[in-house]
Amino acid sequence: MASISIRNLTKRYGNFTVIPDLNLEIADHEFVVFVGPSGCGKSTLLRIIAGLEPISSGDLYIGDKRVNGVQAAQRDIAMVFQDYALYPHMRVYDNMSFALELRGTSKAEIDARVKRAAALLHIEPYLDRKPKELSGGQRQRVAMGRAIVRNPKAFLFDEPLSNLDAKLRGQVRAEIKALSQQLKTTMVFVTHDQIEAMTMADRIVVLQSGTIQQYDTPETVYERPANQFVAGFIGSPAMNFFPVEWRGESAILSQGETAVPLDREITGRLRQAGNAVLGIRPEHFVLAADAADGVAVTVRLVEPLGSDTLIHFDLAGVSAIARVDPALRPKVGDRLNLRPQPGKTHLFDATNGQVLL
Amino acid sequence: MNDAATTDRWIRCLNTLQLVLAGIVIMTPTVWMVLSSFKPSFEVTAYPPTLIFTPTLANYAELTRTTPFLSYALNSLVVTVGSTALGLLFGIPAAFAVSWTRISWPAILTLAARMAPGTLFLLPWYVMFRQVGMIGSYTALILSHAVITLPIVIWVLLPSFDGIPRSVFEAAQVDGCSVTRILWRIALPLVASGVAVSAILAFVFSWNYFLFALVLSNGDSKTLIAAAFNFIGEGSTQWGALMAAATLIALPPLVLAALVQRWLVSGLTLGAVKG
Description:
The complex is a heterodimer. Chain A has helices spanning 42-50, 92-102, 107-121, 136-148, 166-183, 194-200, 218-223, 228-233, 264-273, and strands spanning 4-13, 16-26, 31-35, 57-62, 65-66, 77-80, 154-158, 186-191, 203-208, 211-216, 240-247, 250-253, 258-259, 275-280, 285-287, 295-304, 309-315, 318-324, 335-340, 346-349. The two termini of chain A are 38 Å apart. By secondary structure, chain A is of the alpha+beta class. The longest helix of chain A has 18 residues, at 166-183. At the A-B interface, strand 6 and helix 2 of A face helix 8 and helix 9 of B.
């Protein structure tokens, strides 16, 4: 068990810089999720921590030890790969015991650890099977078992759920979360799925183009996104963005000349900025009593999800979504008066996307 | 429906016909060689060739009586096994290194060496080996035949190593393996059939290679294939004994290939499709 400290880390491939000057502190026992779109550098960062990619410049510490030049084999970390990377020619038991065998652990100790991990992951009946005789979910468990038996300083997960079907993904997600609470080991988990990030992490690192956009708890990242990128990336469906400006004594959605009722705090900040980008999550639209209190929209598409209903509409030239109560049963073409829920709107700088409020 | 079935039947018939024709073309010289080795010597060159004859082992008896055949066979075996072993010893790590580092020029270099005519190597080797007094030695023959076996091993194994997902090697690294141990414990067991195939191909090519043995061997170290050349004399070729020798020479590679036929096919296609 150990903390992970990344200081002024840069990663370049030739002239192409993937990660420019990154700093990150992961506390001991913490479950941190790296999330971001494809190509944001999250897997590269994980592989750097694992020792599978060299660092171009900067420092990496695992615990108190600087591990820049330390081989993966000597870092005492365990990793679960996207494709599980089980050894095809070895039985499940041998897959799990291999690392311990390399470390010269006694046979009795190996046996005890493998069986304990197998029991924890419910894979005891498969210990004599080869990986090809297992389903995707079982292989995933074996990959986790292989990591657990080692009792490493940290666990690294590289999108381990992406090859599972939706139902199994949810199940394994919960199991990994439970496991992290049980094992109390530092865990770093890479995903492009923001639901995985939100549900599992103690803290989330949102990455874009190799730079950290925000590093905070899931609640904070969701409720107080640091910038427009984070606001758009976290949350499903994504936050709606409307260019907005202060004109006369009203907040006007720029492209549609539509006045929008906003909180005093927001309007105050908008008055200072002149123009900005207004962010409203789909779940933060509410029905207004009348047209004067809200904004009139025409329903373009309805997606009933059972627990709630998504309404697609166009507002001030922007294609937007609102999440409403399924009891509302709106139909395509219906006119609705919507307004943002008080205290739930966000304001971003129109030029650099940084949060204004 | 009937039309489709008829077309299907026609295609199958044509496929069979193609296979039979190809089989005849490929097998005729071999069958002719084997049959001739059992014919009385005057019938070997008879025209038209006789298909019905009384089989005799006279050619084989003649072969063993007039030549130290077993000694030549032993020479061939030593040189072939030695050069195959040498090819595997260096070819396996070389192929793994090329696959691991993705630096392909060393593999291309060995392929170029294999594609170059043997005579290119022959003169410098002859001079070098003569200067160090190695002409006629097994060492000289084994080393020269490694030029045949090494590229075969590398190029048969390269796609096999490439076919192993990179993450499996990375998992082994994270588990605590050095690169050497990854080769030994992870990669090699996964390409076992490829190793078998490369060994067989290397064996066959080395066994059948004629030129180096002809120049670099002497009376004591002559290999079978070089010795068989002596049967072709000026105006007095012993065709019967030559056919018997050719049959015996062809036997080990054929037996080997037959024994591991299934592996051979799977090994040659290894790495072509990711499992």
